[in-house]
Amino acid sequence: MSIAVENVAYAAGKTIVVDGITLAVEQGKVLGLLGPNGSGKSSLLRLICRLRKVDSGIIRLAEQDIAAIPRANLARRVAFVEQQATTDTQLTVRDVVQLGRTPHRGLLSPWGVDDDLAVEDALARVDMAHRADQFWHTLSGGERQRVHIARALAQTPSELLLDEPTNHLDIQHQLEILSLVTRLGVTSIIALHDLNLAAMFCDSLAVLQNGKVVAAGAPQEVLTEHLIARVFGVRAHIERSAVHGRYNIQYAMG
């Protein structure tokens, strides 16, 4: 497995946030994390990239305990795109994306051709090359999100973690970004709210509730009308889409 989470627990003060979670992602596959607000999705992502320390359990990258991986090596390997990231510094779009190359460069290493190529490729992939010299703070919320995804791609990671990457994006760019992620061939875990996007783009799903995994498996196995009602509190009708062949979920009030 590329990423394996084994009975991991984490508490913030006296509040249990992640409660004995076990899940795994195969090399090159995309796992979607689903669940209502406060279910533990964001905290789990932070534990996987070691921004937070597990209270118990083990997280492995290719069979190696992340606690034993030097931080510099982990930073070269795992890229994390958070929900919201901001700065007051006057940075251009290219400046922000260039930050993705930091883990690959030593303290005295000169900027090289490989760095330029990685940055330009990342900008092109998220359709922001034409904004490369624009100041980051002048962008819309959706454009900023695309730039942060470009920063992660410039890092050339083997594992990619994304926390609500489609927030603030219009429908076209939601589809483009998730389609891009699935084509990368990079092991990815994506926290999502949109069940239809999860069904459309993810190889497998894990549904979290109150810090626990309550369902995991292929989208067609996990996304049932009963589970959606139990976890999300809404009635749903599920059918296979004639357009893309994946499940399509329609919601009903009351």
Automatic annotation (TrEMBL):
The terms under GO molecular function for this entry are: ATP binding; ATP hydrolysis activity
Matching entries from InterPro entries are given as: AAA+_ATPase, ABC_transporter-like_ATP-bd, P-loop_NTPase
ABC transporter domain: from which residue to which, for each copy?
Answer: 3-235
Biological source species: Shinella sumterensis
Q: Which PANTHER family match?
A: ABC TRANSPORTER ATP-BINDING PROTEIN (PTHR42794:SF2), HEMIN IMPORT ATP-BINDING PROTEIN HMUV (PTHR42794)
Record bears the keyword Nucleotide-binding: yes
Keyword tRNA processing annotated? no
Q: What is this protein called?
A: ABC transporter ATP-binding protein
Keywords (alphabetical) are: ATP-binding, Nucleotide-binding, Plasmid, Transport
Q: Which family does it belong to?
A: Belongs to the ABC transporter superfamily.
Write down a Pfam family by its short name.
Answer: ABC_tran
